[in-house]
Amino acid sequence: MREYIARDAGIYLRLMTYEDTDLIVAWRNSDAVRKNFIYQELFTRQGHESWIKNMVETGKVVQTIICDLATDRPLGSVYVRDIDRQHNKAEYGIFIGEAAARGRGIGTAAARLMLRYCFEEAGLHRVYLRALAHNGQAIRSYEKAGFVREACLRDDVRIDGKYCDIIWMAALNPAEA
Question: Which CA distances in Å does 65 have to 76, 94, 112?
Fold first, then answer.
C-alpha cells in the first residue's frame, strides 16, 4: 500500500497488523461504535485474529488504521471487504474508535483516502456500503467523500427487536466514467 495522507485533516492510513487487535476489539465493542453497525455482536480477540487470517491475509479485505499525523496515535479503522476481482468491487466500512476524533471530518477524509486507494492502486471500479438509515451523520460524511445514495431497503435488518432501513451507497471510479 502506498502512502495515504490527508494533511488538512491531520491523518494518514497505515495497514492494520496483529498488534492492533486489542485496540480494534475495544473500539468495536464500545457502544458508540457498535450501535452504528449492522453486525452488533461483541468482538473477541480470537474472532479478530481469525478475521485477519481468513480475510486480510487472503486478500479478501484490506484494513487500515486511521492515525493522527502529528502523534501517530490510532484513531479508528477504515477498510474494504469482500473484494471481488471478477466485478472489480468491494464493500466499504469505517469506524472512528477514539471519541475525541469524532465529528471533526476525520471519517470523511479517511473515506476519501480509501477511495483513492481503491480506484488508483487496487484498480476497483465500484466501492459500495450499507448504512443504517437513522445514522444521518455517517450518511452525510459518505456523501461528502463521494458516495451516492442508490437505494433504501425498508425494514432490511432487525436490531434489538426493531426493524431498520438500510441505505445502499456507492462510489464509482472517476477515471472510468
Answer: 6, 10, 14
Give 2-5 contacts, CB < 8 A, sequence gap 24+. 2/117, 2/121, 4/64, 4/113, 4/114, 4/116, 4/117, 5/69, 5/113
- Quote the pLDDT of residue 39: 85
Flag whether the pTM goes above 0.90.
yes
Domains and CATH numbers, the chain: 4-129 (3.40.630.30)
Determine the angle formed by the axes of helices 106-116 and 136-145, rounding to 10 degrees.
40
Q: Residue 40: pLDDT band by 50, 70, 90 thresholds?
A: confident
Alpha helices in the chain (DSSP H): 21-29, 31-34, 45-51, 106-116, 136-145
d(CA 91, CA 85): 12
DSSP state of 173: -
Looking at the DSSP bridge assignments, the partners of residue 12 are 5, 67
Buried b (16+ CB within 10 A) or exposed e, 34-58: bebbeeeeebeeeebeebbeebbee
Classify 117 as helix, strand or coil.
helix
H or E element at residue 52: none
Which pLDDT score, from 0 to 100, does residue 64 have? 98
